[in-house]
């Protein structure tokens, strides 16, 4: 099961790595202004925000496999339109399809793996098995993105049909990989008892109820609400190292082209380091609890971003970027494991979508606030602010459940397989400690 999960993850993230280096360059090469590209890119965020929760509920109601396959179909459409686009409207259609793809893709594969673990693993071993699987997934994602970025650079350098066509070539290769992903998912993802043809209509009608119940689970659980708060602050802080790093490099180097040439290999190296960091998660969890590791990783990541803001030269920024990504995927894998521990399989994808939704407004706020700080003060100052916000998420991992004074920590009620409420004592046995 874990091998199939990792194989599907590798195919999925390799295609993403292919398009990361050229996503902004292709529309600019085809005549869009920077302002037009910004407006086009914003379409994806709006679509994700609108569709994130409904698609998560759909995955819980209909099944993980059909939603994961649907996301890949949307990705093929997005890549094809993007590769052929020559106008702002066409690129907006492509990014809109990308938003739908990202919303559908948020959760079903991981939820499928966790469901399988919970169905085949004794309760006492589930947390460690899930953590190993998700940390491996994060490592493979990092390697896939790094390998895709390097492959894209090679394709662009090799393509003989002109620069604009060369920049589109990674998209055509990504389409081929995504078609392979669809075939692999149809073969490898076993999901007994879900998406039966006669129940499809009932499953679709059940989606709003599934969403509402998933939202109630979050509202009734202090721990889940705190984990959503972590995502909000993380979304804000990620702008500091994802968006501000090239701006900071340009500030230090005095030239945007030089900054762009540094960012390519630095990004590939960062995701490679991220994969190594994620691979170390099982070793860390053998010695410390998930909460303890999460607190330390958030503080360390915040400190590395602050160091990037204080760095006196480009070498310091790049070293800080590598250090930031060394803990990035590891922190994400453990955070997701904590989410899975708090919710049953009927609402797992919904809660993952809620977490993703929490990250989007955090990122939007980060773009506004940190952009203003960078403009009024400096990009370095913006990175310092973002790093501090990242570190502020650490105390949220210490939140515990409880009702009234001196109440014992308790998990929220979960839904059983028949849709009824089961008592907290029958919920997942892993504790948030």
Short description:
This protein has 433 residues and is an all-alpha fold. It has helices spanning 2-19, 25-29, 34-62, 64-84, 88-105, 108-120, 123-158, 163-188, 200-220, 222-242, 244-253, 256-279, 281-287, 290-310, 314-341, 348-376, 379-391, and strands spanning 414-415, 421-422. Strand 1 and strand 2 (421-422) form a beta hairpin.
Percent of residues in helices? over 70%
User: How large is the share of residues in beta strands?
Assistant: under 5%
The major sheet is characterized as: 2 strands, antiparallel
Number of helices: 17
Q: What is the number of E strands?
A: 2
Order of helices and strands: HHHHHHHHHHHHHHHHHEE
- Side-by-side strand order of the widest sheet: 1-2
Structural class: mainly alpha
CATH homologous superfamily placement of the largest domain: MFS general substrate transporter like domains
Q: Quote the average pLDDT.
A: 79
Radius of gyration: 21 Å
Membrane topology: Multi-pass membrane protein
Subcellular location: Cell membrane
Keywords: Membrane, Transmembrane, Transmembrane helix
Protein name: MFS transporter
Can you describe this structure?
Pfam families: MFS_1 (PF07690). Keywords: Membrane, Transmembrane, Transmembrane helix. It is a multi-pass membrane protein. This is MFS transporter. It is found in: Cell membrane. With 433 residues, the chain is mostly helical. The protein folds into 2 domains: 190 residues, MFS general substrate transporter like domains (Growth Hormone, Chain: A, Up-down Bundle); 186 residues, Growth Hormone, Chain: A. Helices cover 79% and strands 1% of the residues. It has 17 helices and 2 strands. The protein has a two-stranded antiparallel ribbon with strand order 1-2. β1 and β2 form a beta hairpin. α7 runs antiparallel to α12. It is globular and about 55 Å long. The C terminus is likely disordered.
């Amino acid at each position: 099961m874990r091998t199939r999960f990792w194989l599907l993850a590798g195919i999925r993230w390799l295609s993403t790595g292919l398009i990361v280096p050229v996503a902004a360059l292709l529309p600019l090469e085809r005549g869009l202004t920077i302002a037009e590209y910004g407006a086009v890119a914003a379409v994806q965020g709006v679509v994700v925000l609108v569709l994130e929760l409904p698609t998560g509920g759909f995955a819980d109601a209909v099944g993980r496999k059909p939603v994961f396959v649907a996301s890949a179909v949307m990705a093929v459409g997005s890549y094809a339109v993007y590769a052929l686009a020559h106008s702002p409207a066409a690129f907006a259609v492509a990014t809109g399809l990308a938003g739908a793809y990202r919303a559908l893709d948020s959760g079903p594969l991981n939820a499928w793996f966790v469901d399988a673990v919970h169905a085949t693993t004794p309760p006492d071993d589930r947390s460690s098995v899930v953590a190993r699987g998700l940390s491996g997934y994060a490592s493979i994602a990092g390697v896939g993105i790094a390998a895709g970025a390097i492959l894209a650079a090679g394709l662009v350098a090799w393509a003989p049909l002109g620069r604009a066509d060369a920049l589109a070539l990674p998209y055509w290769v990504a389409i081929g990989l995504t078609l392979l992903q669809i075939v692999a998912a149809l073969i490898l993802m076993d999901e007994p008892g879900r998406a039966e043809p006669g129940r499809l209509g009932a499953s679709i009608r059940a989606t709003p109820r599934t969403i509402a119940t998933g939202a109630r689970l979050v509202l009734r659980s202090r721990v889940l609400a705190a984990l959503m708060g972590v995502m909000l602050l993380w979304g804000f802080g990620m702008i500091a190292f994802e968006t501000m790093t090239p701006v900071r490099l340009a500030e230090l180097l005095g030239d945007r082209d030089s900054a762009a040439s540094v960012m390519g290999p630095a990004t590939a190296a960062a995701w490679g380091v991220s994969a190594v960091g994620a691979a170390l998660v099982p070793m860390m969890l053998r010695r410390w609890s998930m909460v303890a590791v999460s607190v330390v990783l958030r503080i360390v990541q915040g400190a590395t971003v602050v160091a990037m803001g204080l760095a006196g030269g480009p070498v310091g920024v790049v070293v800080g970027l590598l250090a930031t990504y060394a803990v990035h995927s590891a922190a994400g894998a453990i955070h997701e494991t904590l989410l899975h521990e708090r919710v049953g399989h009927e609402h797992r994808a919904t809660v993952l979508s809620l977490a993703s939704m929490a990250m989007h407004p955090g990122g939007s706020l980060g773009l506004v606030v940190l952009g203003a700080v960078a403009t009024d003060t400096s990009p370095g100052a913006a990175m310092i602010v973002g790093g501090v916000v990242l570190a502020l998420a650490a105390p949220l991992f210490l939140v515990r459940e409880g009702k009234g004074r001196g109440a014992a920590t308790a998990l929220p009620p979960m839904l059983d397989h028949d849709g009824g409420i089961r008592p907290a004592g029958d919920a997942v046995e892993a504790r948030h400690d």
